[in-house]
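How it folds:
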Amino acid sequence: MENRSAFFCYPRKVTTAIAVTGLLGISLLLPSRLADPKLPNHLQQADKEAVTGPIFAPPLELQGKIVRQVQLGEKEKAIALTFDDGPWPETTFQVLNILRQNNIKATFFWIGRNLKKHPDIGRQVVAEGHAIGNHTWHHWYFHMNPATAAAEIENTSKLIYETTGVQTFLFRPPGGFLHNGLVAYARSKNYGIMMWNSEPGEFQPRNTAAAYVKNVLNLAKPGGIVLLHDVHPKSVLALPQIIAGLRQRGYRFVTVPELLEMQAQAPKSKPKVEQVSR
């Protein structure tokens, strides 16, 4: 595996690179667009810390935006698999094994308290080259004030960095709730809000693994983001068939940052974004 200790996973094609030393504490080659003052707030404050791992951040035009799907060219069939709520014993390792066997990189949105319990699993996910997003500390759905929302997101970001060296500015709200205070806070800090357009129906107890496969395949679209959970055994059981079915339909698999980069390289198309009131 290549050394990614100084790799900035910024989803924008790099045309001009600049060396940044004072900003991040070490010399990195970053896209020239990072000279723009509208950076994720964490990145602006990162001069006190040395970056030891990748940084996953949306391009400037998607900071504070909600993305469900990226519009690609007619002949491009890329799709991103995402896994929420981990890391978790057994099932996360099973997902990693399946992804490794199929040569696929995915994106994992972590709950902070689960990462605290299972740091070694988190480090293994990163070591295998997968992208990471923030899924709050507790996975609460209820409405929260700005201080609580900030703690849910910032404590998770801090632990992800301290545990794995990853800095991430990709956020997914628990349950997809957009109006309980979390998304408003994430938008104010320039996170990209990563939703989904395809999911298996994991929270319908009567659904079988076969139903999971059918649901994902029926909803899949080029540029799509598939929601799965690496804490659900039936999702693990369905995953090989989901992968096989999507490949039979001509899809190739990318991470969420890679999907956003593809959008950045296709200026005539626009991602499916939506605005919510702060």
Q: What stands out?
A: The longest helix spans residues 146-164. Confidence is low (pLDDT under 50) at residues 1-39.
